[in-house]
Amino acid sequence: MIPLNDDQPNRYGSIPFVTISLIALNTAILFWEFSLPFDILWKVIWFFGFRPSVIWAQEGAGMLSSITAMFLHGGIAHLLGNMLFLWVFGRRVEDACGPARFLIFYLFAGVCADLITAIVQPHESIPGIGASGAIFGVMGAYLILFPEGRIRTLWFIYFIPAWPHIRAVWFIFYYLIVQIPPALDTYLNGVQYGIGYWAHLGGFSACIFILLFLRHEAFARYMSNVGV
Amino acid sequence: MWEDQRIQQAILAARAGRELTARDMFLDIVRDQPHNETAWLWLIGLLDDPEDCIEACERALMINPGRAPVRERLNQLLAEREQRLAEERARAEEQARTARKAMKPDDRESALMLARHLTASQHAGPEAWRFLSEASTDINEQIGALKKLLEFEPGNARVKNKVRQLNHFIEDPFDLASFYTERGEREKAIAAYQTAAMDPRFKKRWNEIYWKMASLQRQREEQIAHIPPLVSIARLTFAPTLLYVALTLVHVGVNPFANPQPLLWSGFFVVLLGGFMNALAVVRSHNKIWAVLFRTAAAHSTPAMRFIMATGGWILIALPHILLFLLAVMRIKDIGSGLEIGL
A219 and B235 in contact by Cβ < 8 A? Predict the structure, then answer.
């Protein structure tokens, strides 16, 4: 089940400038990563990825690694998956917040993802990279702001593609729930999955603050229960 | 001789207890002989209305200023009148105060009628005029009421500012509309935009007026609640601080108590101030702060002022983040010098 788009128009008519810029920037950085020799790329990821053990020791790039890790990706599939989700869910959230506040929220969700990872896995020394924590925050914000929202998704039923509209709530809940068992497994048994499940949950938790970032009118609409 | 007889008859009537007849007779006499002291003296005792009594005393004293008992009576009457007026004024003021407090936004008509009734009285005091200024929707009536209020309270800076603001709104209905919008008074805001649309000075802003009116009408149809500007300012003030706090927590190694860094945490307040300035620029078009900072007549903001405020806010928000960034870069340079990654 792959999200394709949300075909509802923007209410405030703003171009999703930040969403597009983030997609462009992440893509450009991935191409820059491809241009680096492997040993240098490894050092870049080691240094600018988010390593909880280094953060606790107050070494490494500190807060900078929390930001830089958000823009590094491990490959085309990693980037495509994240950017697709960012496009589907980020556009309308940005419209409701306005570009500047949406950017702050996006970064905040990414840093929250890292903070939760650092708290739950303080001894983890493998660098975490990717925008998924921030994007889970955006998905959570979408869930709060557009509970009635429907997105077009791509399904393959016995290799036959179908693209039904489904309630975004079910889609987001599905992606949220599938994070929980491996996250618990990581926490309780120390199993390494190579995916930042706690970062996803941490990023998602940032969505509880989304109302602080909304436009004046969007907030009034939300409080009046008439759709942001 | 004839006049003496009339006086005698009037005195006899008064002594016989026919006071009304006597009063009328004396009144006839003073109409024919305005300088008849005896008639005026008798009238002082016969007239019921204190105001008429005062006039009789004054007329008697004009004829003979040396009559001490009449002067005493006049002083007594004047003191009584002053007390009576004070009581009536206090009663009217109390009524106005109570009505002002009980005034409901959805029942302004009856409040306005009462306010007009109270201010029509000669005993109308400052509370009545204040009540009228708040109950009225007509700017000219509000200005009139506030000017009357200023006669009672000439040093009231708030009222003076309000008069200046209302005069500004007469000049600029567009600004008045945004003022009403901010207060959630959509009907008045739409009416003000309609006034602005008819003003040739705002011809270039027709498009903007159209969109603003359409937005207000949509909000009215969808029954969107009015959110007080204070709520939005608080919301938007705290939003940027969240990112700063999260970044600082990461930078100090998650535990702020184990590694206290006062300089970094003091940045929180700078971001908070920046967030406030930014929120103010976005949310409030009318606020005392505009008057204090930019000395505007009606405590209103212009697009230029808002731009300055918003830019200042963003700069303040950015500064602590830049400090944080520089500290991170310094740490990288210390540790990463041997990693040959171009830092």
Answer: yes
| DSSP code per residue over A111-132 | HHHHHHHHHH-TT--SPB--SH
- Contact assignment for B250 to A111 by CB distance below 8 Å: yes
Q: B225 to chain A nearest CA, in Å?
A: 6
A220 CA: distance to closest CA in chain B (Å) = 6
Give the whole-angstrom CA distance, residue B185 versus residue B209: 16
Q: CATH no. for residue A89?
A: 1.20.1540.10
Check B331 against A209: CB less than 8 A apart: no
Count how many domains chain A has: 1
How far, in Å, CA of B32 to CA of B182, rounded? 68
Sign of the torsion angle spanned by Cα atoms B62, B64, B68, B70: negative
> Which of A211-215, B96-100, B235-239 has the least mean pLDDT?
B96-100
Q: Show the domain range for A202.
A: 2-223
Q: Which residues of B touch A228 (CB under 8 A)?
A: none
How far does A87 lie from chain B, in Å, by closest CA?
A: 22
Contact assessment for residue A13 and residue A79, using Cβ atoms and an 8 Å cutoff: no
Give the tens place of pLDDT for each residue, B15-69.
998 999 999 999 999 998 888 889 999 999 999 898 999 999 999 999 988 889 9
- Cα torsion A135, A90, A6, A212 to 10°: value is 110
**Considering the domain boundaries, does residue A228 fall inside one?**
no
Q: How far apart are the first and last CA of chain B?
A: 127
- Asked if ipTM goes beyond 0.90, one says yes
**What's residue A108's pLDDT?**
97
CA A117 → CA A74, B218, B273, distances in Å? Answer: 18, 44, 30
Does the pLDDT at position A164 exceed 80? yes
* Widest distance between CA atoms in chain A: 55
Is residue A180, in this structure, part of any structural domain at all?
Answer: yes
**Which of B215, B254, B306, B323 best probes binding to A when mutated, by most A CB atoms within 10 angstroms?**
B254
- B248 and A101: CB-CB below 8 Å? no
How far apart are the C-alpha atoms of A139 and B283, rounded to whole Å?
A: 27
Cβ contact, residue pair A44, B340, below 8 Å: no
Report if residue A161 sits inside a domain.
yes
Sign (positive or negative) of CA dihedral B245, B250, B251, B254: positive
pLDDT at residue B117, as a whole number: 87
Q: Is residue A117 situated within a structural domain? A: yes
The upper half-sphere exposure of residue B27, i.e. CA atoms within 13 Å in the direction of its Cβ, equals: 11
pLDDT tens for B289-339 read 887 888 776 777 888 888 999 999 999 999 999 999 999 988 887 665 545
